[in-house]
Automatic annotation (TrEMBL):
InterPro entries: AAA+_ATPase, ABC_transporter-like_ATP-bd, ABC_transporter-like_CS, ABC_transpr_LolD-like, MacB-like_ATP-bd, P-loop_NTPase. Keywords: ATP-binding, Cell membrane, Lipoprotein, Membrane, Nucleotide-binding, Translocase, Transport. The keyword Phosphoprotein does not apply. This is Lipoprotein-releasing system ATP-binding protein LolD. One of its GO terms (molecular function) is ATP hydrolysis activity. Residues 2-216 form the ABC transporter domain. PANTHER family: IMPORT ATP-BINDING PROTEIN, LIPOPROTEIN-RELEASING SYSTEM ATP-BINDING PROTEIN LOLD. It comes from Chitinophaga caeni.
Amino acid sequence: MLIARNLTKNYSNLPVLKGVDINVSKGEIVTIVGSSGAGKSTLLHILGTLDTPTGGEVWLEDVNITALKGNKLADFRNRNLGFIFQFHHLLPEFSALENVCIPGFIKGAKSNIVKDRAVFLLETLGLKERLEHRPAQLSGGEQQRVAVARALINEPKIVMADEPTGNLDSQNARELHQLFTELSERFQQTFIIVTHNEDLAKMSTRSLTMKDGKIV
Ligand code: ADP
Ligand code: ADP
């Protein structure tokens, strides 16, 4: 589904990625682990079109995503990729349900279809009683689950997550892991996850270790 070939990245002549190759198949949960500064976030951002490589290419199915620019890139990203970060950046003035719906409305999907799916996702994530709550009225674990529902609303081909459990207690982290596994098994949802969490790395279908700009 996703193929990266010979990715390199320099920040003002300093090499941060030194030739990375990755193949990810549909339904896989791939974790990227390794010490701080190894290049994990840089790699994830390039795979997710949030940053451009100095050299190499990334293909998502038949699209060379490293060649996309401007509106085409923004539209492709919103339709095909979902993002989960340690800090979820929910919009404080909107309800949980509205936060989840917004990327669907931006995509231009029919509003009743978006809303039905958002309700389904939030209910599946155990937030049935929280649809109209604003982020400040939700616990940290609940807010992160809203962010997961938002990442899934447009049925992304791949979900990219950067330290998704970094801000959660161990119980909520375990629940998030179970959720990723369930989504992978039930819907063949594909994940690429940067994490320091060893439990999460263990439950992934494949764990890649980065060291000094390379997968080792
Ligand atoms: P990791 O996620 O494994 O901790 P990063 O990808 O965040 O590693 O960073 C890899 C290296 O690239 C680090 O040395 C970091 O300081 C450097 N780096 C990351 N982003 C930038 C940037 N925007 N400008 C300059 N250097 C950067
Ligand atoms: P968790 O362990 O899942 O993170 P908490 O124990 O923090 O949950 O919260 C339990 C419940 O209390 C949550 O369902 C949430 O709705 C409510 N709650 C938590 N924080 C707040 C808050 N700041 N304002 C209002 N309700 C809150």
